[in-house]
């Protein structure tokens, strides 16, 4: 509920659901709770017609999804390739591919020493895929991967919290590892990282270039404005609603929609002389 990325999506969900004369119930799931268990309880208590799971980590939940007896859809959630796609519907971007796009852009600007700020090592969802995209980009450009430049939060820390990007960036700066660019797996983290960079007396992009992911409004209004991968959140929310109501009202088969992200090039990236 405190994730700024979801705010516009929730507004669209509410409008779409109420326009079809259904009631909209928003229920927050804590980090330490099991999303499926919470859903099963809500189905009993509220006699739900359908569920949108917004965010969360379902990488190891494949078998448990079978227990949900009402139509549901996973929105902005990266699922493991091992989970049977017939069990669920989904709407998302290709996190691996979009992340690779972002890092390749940094490489094309002459950056070879690129740090990445990510979720805890136990994450099997979005952060994991975005790190894979980072690795793929460097490999495709023939750049060696320095594992010391891959920085993880503690396992229970949220990647949508600016403070976590700030802390990781401070640790990286204090480590004295050499880097010219920073890629964070969320805009919130990159904004926190920016504060740590500026506090250290360095400048963006003169000393360090920065790149985010998500396309939050604040990334545009930050100074300097931050380059990022924008997810089309409103379109994703509308498609999520459309698929869900098709499941509820037409007994449709499960379906999957992958949206294209948009690389937004702004002031936060400098070109290096190759």
Give descriptors for this structure.
alpha/beta, 38% helix, 274 residues, 4-stranded parallel beta sheet
Structure description:
39% of the residues are buried. The strands form 3 sheets. This protein has a 4-stranded parallel sheet with strand order 1-2-3-9, covered by helices on one side. It is elongated, with a radius of gyration of 19 Å. Strand 6, helix 6 and strand 7 form a beta-alpha-beta unit. It starts with 6 loop residues before the first helix and ends in a 10-residue tail after the last strand. The model has no long low-confidence stretch (mean pLDDT 93). With 274 residues, it is of the alpha/beta class.
Lateral strand order in the biggest sheet = 1-2-3-9
Helicity, in percent?
Answer: 25-40%
| Number of β-strand runs | 10
Radius of gyration over C-alpha positions, nearest whole angstrom:
19 Å
Distance between the termini: 44 Å
Shape from CA axes? Answer: elongated
How does the major sheet shape up? 4 strands, parallel
Unreliable stretches = none
What pattern of helices and strands is seen along the backbone?
A: HHEEEHEHEHEHEHEHEE
- The helix count comes to 8
DSSP strand (E) fraction? 5-15%
